[in-house]
Design a protein that fits this description.
about 260 residues, alpha+beta, about 45% helix, 9 strands, IclR family transcriptional regulator, transcription regulation, WH_DNA-bd_sf
Length: about 260
């Protein structure tokens, strides 16, 4: 019977629980990458043994959760990953009502409207209605961004206590743009403003040229979902931002009331 080389790890050495965890992490790593990754790049990012990665990626390819490029050496998520994400959206009871709200808001303010849910230290985009002059932009549905650099995330982080925010976020806050908040003290100061004002505002913290207003949807305590409005940064004057925030507060308050009335928690 062949003997494993001392110190090496084979796919058979991995427990079912660890194998399942690695499988999920592989999919998350591929989903987060803007380009396909080779096995070497996956190993570098994840630190897993190459033999284990190779076996898991091969199985995921056979099941169509992962697909390869024409050379068979670089990998990305496959079509069956989309089936899982679509099923989540189809079964979410709040989304049907949220879709109506963001459609109405887009019609009133004319800008791109997003609906998102906090996913630990990130926000996950669940629905969007693009402004009529945003042709060619890629939808954010299914994408995740760090909560601390988005108005959506700041609106939802403001629902938590300072201690809860510190426990949730990493010690080092990564910045996506020069305007990104990367200091915990500065973030806490901004979240206190959000709590007092009732809505969040960020300018070019994650996307150049874009400013964003967001309001938490209060049908859960603490709120898990929020609605945002993205506008050109040069249009985000104090008066106009307040006008948009007032419209959003009105619509989002009505949405929260409807969700509670429908028994959705």
């Amino acid at each position: 019977m062949p003997q494993a080389i001392e110190g090496s790890t084979t796919a058979n050495d991995v427990s079912p629980v660890k194998s399942a965890e690695r499988t999920v992490k592989i999919l998350e790593t591929l989903a987060a990458s803007p380009t396909r990754l080779t096995l070497s790049e996956l190993q570098e990012r994840m630190g897993y043994p190459r033999s284990s990665l190779h076996a898991l990626v091969r199985t995921l390819r056979e099941l169509k959760w992962v697909e390869a490029d024409e050379t068979g050496s670089a990998f990305g998520v496959g079509p069956h990953a989309l089936l899982s994400g679509t099923a989540y959206l189809d079964r979410d009871p709040a989304l049907r009502f949220a879709q109506e709200t963001i459609e109405d808001l887009r019609g009133e303010v004319g800008y791109t409207i997003h609906y998102a849910r906090r996913d630990d230290a990130h926000v996950l985009y669940l629905a969007s209605r693009e402004s009529r002059d945003s042709a060619g932009r890629v939808s954010r549905v299914g994408r995740r961004l760090p909560a601390h650099v988005t108005a959506l995330g700041q609106a939802l982080l403001a629902e938590l206590t300072e201690a809860e925010v510190d426990a949730l976020l990493p010690a080092s806050l990564a910045g996506l743009q020069p305007n990104s908040i990367t200091d915990h003290a500065a973030l806490h100061a901004e979240l206190e403003v959000v709590r007092k004002r009732g809505w969040a505002f960020e300018r070019e913290q994650n996307t150049p040229g874009v400013a964003c207003v967001a309001v938490a949807v209060g049908y859960r305590i603490p709120a898990s979902d929020a609605v945002s409005c993205s506008m050109p940064a040069d249009r985000a004057t104090p008066d106009h931002v307040q006008e948009v925030a007032d419209a959003m507060t009105r619509h989002v308050t009505a949405l929260a009331r409807t969700l509670r009335h429908e028994g959705i928690r």
